[in-house]
Amino acid sequence: MNLYMSVDMEGITGLVDHTQVDSSKHNYERSRAIMTGEANAVIQAAFDYGCSEVLVNDSHSQMNNLLIENLHPDTTLISGGAKPYSMVEGLDETCSAAIFVGYHARASMKGVMSHSMIFGVRHMYINDVVVGELGFNAYVAGYYGVPVIMVAGDDQAALEAESLIPNVTTAVVKETISRSVAKSLTPAKSAELLREKTVVALQNKEHVKPLVPPDHPTLRIEFANYGQAEWASLMPGTVLEEGTTIVRYEAKDILEAYRAMLVMTELAMRTTFC
Fold it and tell me: Please, what is the end-to-end C-alpha distance for the chain in angstroms?
């Protein structure tokens, strides 16, 4: 069995604010070590269960956070920014199942450091389904027929996963008190939980169906600021919906929608507020 893992940072145990997930801040190096340890707990459990390969994609910010020298030696790691498929780079039909670790809730929702790709996004939609990073990434997995069998993160990410993916296994490593406060397990206890939940998820794999995306999906992104919507709508093929901050794109498939989302959000980040 070939297992794919996408590892984000905001949903890692004990991490609650920007000083812990921003590489320019003082708490970041500690967070990298905790993130790597949490990934290792899942990786070790997967290999112990009998997985033949574990492919890990570093999925936070510049995507060079995981400490490769401390990862399980049999792991393969995709690291670095500007990936064509960002948080799901390397995921394809050769993967038997996917696990998302360190995930958080979508923008505009309760949850520790909740957001969707950038802080200028209020909502993202695939047709009429509102999605965050978790849902969009699960749709890409579904395009390849790959089920997302486990999501680890805070309690709100778990609720979001359960609402989208029937029978998914969730591992809650911290409970939301506010967007920057959580009641967290220690890394040792989190690792114990993740090992247990990984085994449960692998045993339950056949009961989880891929989240199949719609054919020719309509992507709609609602931005917080009109300037962000203007920038995003510079991408050819987009439409800025009159009287809103929503930019629409008609995609040929979910892969094109995903790459369109990456371009639109990157453009939106060029907006200034002065």
Answer: 52
